[in-house]
Every structure is written in structure tokens, then in C-alpha cells.
């Protein structure tokens, strides 16, 4: 009986030891332990990750054998000091370089471990400075998200978070991961994506994941503001600068301590881009009619729905401004390149409109989902949401499956025509890129014909700016074909 009891105690001790080691390997702090002989006896996974060394190459060796860099003096200034004095060293900063060239900046605390009245080991618990910064930013994002969820009436600002982006595909996960990494710094970011891919949601999410999260989020659609007003809107004005002008701060001033989001930056007049470049370089603005420079401190995120290098080739964006704005570029994949996300997006939008309409719809039918997965989605996620909302408006209360019969008639034609064209098309004849360009060209030509070749009205119907439509006409060489027909 005694033997069984001893065996049980041994088993419990082994189990407890394994549990403690598992816990130590799971925490976000680095844990580093040396014994009284200065041999490293514990080196957890967090230290492995931050230092880039393998545990099997470290354990059993002394600090001097592992850390060969000349500027590593932790052993002399900390470990041996704690062994000698028996007193802990609390919350200290230590900077050293590893032999692999990796620079370490650590906040640590070091403690003596006593066994039977003698110091048997010295253990250090620390965090890399970069890890601390990430922890602070993640905490700010969570705090901001909780505050936003608690507010029943939301103020103007960033309403979305990177966690709100729906998708299971590898490319959308990679894009969100990149956005989360970039958000931690203050470099300008250019978001590139087709209309309807969710560029503004990414901008909201990056703001809420940044150190500017507690500041304002100011979105500006450069295509929606007349060219004559955009300068005063962005930079402000002083009284008397022009007829009706007052002392009004611009949006850059209003974004102080936060983020300004310049959507459709490709629609900004070329003449105004030089002034924007100066603001980005000097971090100051001058209101229209003023000689005073006002310092501004805000994050700048911009977005374009056309290929950024097309903006350079077509001289839509100044090269110096482009490279200033695109310090980091994030490309959002179109829906046709992440069709695995269509089903989860459908369920997401169904849940959204269930809450709005009081419905109990559970899913889309397999036939409709198959049709969705074959469609090319020129309007991307926004078009999918529009179809789901339109279809749910036509459902009867109590229906649980959204089917093809619920889709509005004008979408019937688009979905069926695309499916028929896809079946008849020889994939060797044309690339996907060429097919999309041809579809866009025909779509614009039909819109022009329906609006008596009126540029302004056609742009309004298409949901793009007049300047953007002119660019499309030039790209597709439609302008030459229609000049004789009296384009207005």
C-alpha cells in the first residue's frame, strides 16, 4: 500500500511538472532560467520566438556559451548580481544584439529561486518592446470595439474592425493579417481594390487597430466633392479668402490625433495633389487665404479602385505623391478570386437582414449557391449583399431557404446570361482579364446609349465620377467611337 501511494505521488508530481511546463510555454512572456552553475535549464517558447534560437541548442549550456556577441552583458550585470545579492531586479530595460544580428530590446524582471535556504536558480521574465507595443495596440482595439458596441447611438467615426471582415479564403486572411501588421505603425497606406471589395471597411479596421484608435476617423470621398470645393474642405479657409468663406478648419485639422481616409484618391485634381504632397511631407496645412502653417498629426490612408500603376501611366496621380501615399500598399482581392467565401458571405448577409426584417431565413439553396459560385461578380461583395437584400425583400415570412425564385428579375437575366456565356466560351480564346474588360466596355456603351450619350448622367447611373468615366472611355477607346454621335 505504501508503495502504491508513493507511485501515485510520483505520477502526480510528473503530471504537475508537465502541466507547469505547458503553462510556461503558453504564456506571452519570455521565461529564462539558469541554475547556480549558470547553466540554462529553462527556455520557453516565447524566448525561442523572440530571439530566434532553438531550445535544444540552448539548454544545458552557460549564458557565455550561447550569447557570444560582445555587447551581451546580461550574465555579468544581472544574473551574477542576483546570485550574489539574492535581491530581485525589477522592470529594467536591456538592449543587446544576438550573433545572428537580431536586435533585442527587452523589459525584464529577474528573481532568485531559493531551495532549502540557498539560491538554486535565477529566473527572468521579460517581454520584447515590439511585443509590448502589439499588446497595447490590441488592447486599444478591443477597448475601442467594446465602447463602440456599448453605444446605442454611434458617433461619426470608424464603425468597423478587422475582425468584422468576413471570409475563410487564404487570400482574404493574408490581406487582413497584412492590414493588422501595417496598422501598428503610422506610415501612409494605399488600399487598392475594385469597387465593392470593402476598401472602406479595411480603412475603418486599420484605424481601430492603430495607436490613433482613440482619435477621430475622417472619411473623404474625393470623387463626391466638386473640384472647386475640395481644397477648402481638406485644408480649411479663413474669413474673406473667397466669397462666403469663413474661419473653417479643414478635414486634416479635424483628423488631428486620428485618421483621414482619402477614398478614390485617383479622382483628386492634379493641381491639388501638389498641395497634398506638401502636407504629407511637412505635416502642416495652410488654410486658403492664410499665411500661417498649422501642424497636423494624423494617419493618412488612401484608396483607389483602379490599378495604381495605371494612375501613373495615365498621369492621374503625380508620381511623387503616389510613392508618398503608397509607402505600404494593400491589395484587396475581388470576390471572383475568393469564391470559397461566397457561402459564408451569404450567411452573414442573411443574418444581417434577418435582424432587420424579423425573418428566420437559414441559408441559400444549393442551386442558387452554385449559380453564385459561377458568376463573375463585377460589383464584388457589395453586389452580393445587394442581391441578398433584394431577394429577402421578396420572401414570405416563415420561409427559411432563399432560392432562385426570390432573386429579382433583372438579376435573373444577368446570372443566366453569364452562365450561358461561360458555357459557350472557349477558354483558349480569351483570358479572364480580357473578358472582364470586354464586359465593362459593353456595359459602359449600353449605359451611354440609354442616357443619350450624356457623360454626367451616365457617370451618375454607373455610380462613378465624371473624371473616372472619362478615364474608362479613354481606356476602352470608346471616346473616339462616340465623338461623332455627340457625346456631351
Automatic annotation (TrEMBL):
Residues 16-86 form the PAS domain. The lineage of its organism: Bacteria, Bacillati, Bacillota, Clostridia, Eubacteriales. The keyword Nucleotide-binding applies. Pfam families: AAA_lid_14 (PF25601), HTH_8 (PF02954), PAS (PF00989), Sigma54_activat (PF00158). Residues 165-393 form the Sigma-54 factor interaction domain. Transmembrane segments: none annotated. GO terms for molecular function: ATP binding; sequence-specific DNA binding. This is PAS domain S-box. SMART domains: AAA, PAS. GO terms for biological process: regulation of DNA-templated transcription. PROSITE patterns: PAS, SIGMA54_INTERACT_1, SIGMA54_INTERACT_2, SIGMA54_INTERACT_3, SIGMA54_INTERACT_4. Keywords: ATP-binding, DNA-binding, Nucleotide-binding, Transcription, Transcription regulation.
Amino acid at each position: 500500500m505504501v508503495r502504491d501511494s508513493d507511485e501515485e505521488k510520483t505520477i502526480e508530481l510528473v503530471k504537475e511538472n508537465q502541466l507547469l511546463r505547458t503553462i510556461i510555454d503558453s504564456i506571452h512572456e519570455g521565461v529564462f532560467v539558469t541554475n547556480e552553475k549558470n547553466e540554462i535549464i529553462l527556455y520557453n517558447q516565447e524566448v525561442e520566438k523572440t530571439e530566434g534560437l532553438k531550445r535544444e541548442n540552448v539548454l544545458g549550456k552557460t549564458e557565455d556559451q550561447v550569447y557570444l556577441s560582445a555587447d551581451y552583458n546580461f550574465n555579468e550585470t544581472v544574473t551574477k548580481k542576483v546570485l550574489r545579492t539574492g535581491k530581485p531586479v525589477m522592470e529594467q530595460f536591456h538592449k543587446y544584439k544576438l550573433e545572428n544580428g537580431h536586435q533585442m530590446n527587452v523589459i525584464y524582471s529577474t528573481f532568485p529561486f531559493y531551495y532549502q535556504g540557498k539560491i538554486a536558480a535565477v529566473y527572468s521574465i521579460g517581454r520584447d518592446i515590439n511585443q509590448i507595443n502589439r499588446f497595447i495596440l490590441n488592447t486599444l482595439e478591443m477597448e475601442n470595439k467594446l465602447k463602440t458596441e456599448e453605444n446605442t447611438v454611434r458617433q461619426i467615426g470608424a464603425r468597423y474592425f478587422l475582425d468584422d471582415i468576413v471570409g475563410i479564403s487564404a487570400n482574404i486572411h493574408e490581406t487582413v493579417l497584412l492590414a493588422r501588421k501595417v496598422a501598428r505603425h503610422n506610415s501612409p497606406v494605399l488600399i487598392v481594390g475594385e469597387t465593392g471589395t470593402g476598401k472602406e471597411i479595411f480603412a475603418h479596421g486599420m484605424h481601430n487597430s492603430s495607436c490613433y484608435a482613440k482619435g477621430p476617423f475622417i472619411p473623404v470621398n474625393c470623387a463626391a466633392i466638386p473640384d472647386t470645393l475640395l481644397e477648402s474642405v481638406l485644408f480649411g479657409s479663413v474669413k474673406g479668402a473667397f466669397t462666403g468663406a469663413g474661419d473653417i478648419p479643414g478635414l486634416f485639422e479635424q483628423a488631428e490625433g486620428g485618421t483621414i481616409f482619402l477614398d478614390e484618391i485617383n479622382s483628386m485634381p492634379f493641381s491639388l495633389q501638389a498641395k497634398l504632397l506638401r502636407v504629407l511631407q511637412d505635416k502642416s496645412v495652410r488654410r486658403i487665404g492664410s499665411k500661417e502653417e498649422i501642424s497636423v498629426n494624423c494617419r493618412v490612408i488612401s484608396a483607389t479602385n483602379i490599378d495604381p500603376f495605371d494612375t501613373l501611366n495615365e498621369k492621374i496621380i503625380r508620381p511623387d505623391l503616389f510613392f508618398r501615399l503608397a509607402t505600404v500598399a494593400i491589395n484587396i482581392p475581388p470576390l471572383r478570386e475568393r469564391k470559397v467565401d461566397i457561402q459564408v458571405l451569404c450567411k452573414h448577409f442573411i443574418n444581417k437582414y434577418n435582424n432587420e426584417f424579423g425573418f428566420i431565413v437559414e441559408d441559400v439553396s444549393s442551386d442558387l449557391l452554385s449559380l453564385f459560385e459561377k458568376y463573375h461578380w463585377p460589383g464584388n461583395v457589395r453586389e452580393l449583399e445587394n442581391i441578398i437584400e433584394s431577394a429577402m425583400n421578396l420572401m414570405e415570412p416563415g420561409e427559411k431557404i432563399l432560392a432562385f425564385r426570390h432573386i429579382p428579375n433583372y438579376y435573373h437575366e444577368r446570372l443566366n446570361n453569364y452562365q450561358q456565356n461561360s458555357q459557350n466560351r472557349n477558354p483558349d480564346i480569351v483570358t479572364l482579364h480580357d473578358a472582364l474588360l470586354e464586359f465593362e466596355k459593353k456595359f459602359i456603351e449600353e449605359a451611354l446609349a440609354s442616357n443619350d450619350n450624356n457623360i454626367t448622367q451616365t457617370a451618375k447611373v454607373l455610380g462613378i465620377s465624371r473624371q473616372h468615366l472619362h478615364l474608362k472611355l479613354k481606356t476602352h477607346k470608346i471616346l473616339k467611337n462616340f465623338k461623332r454621335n455627340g457625346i456631351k
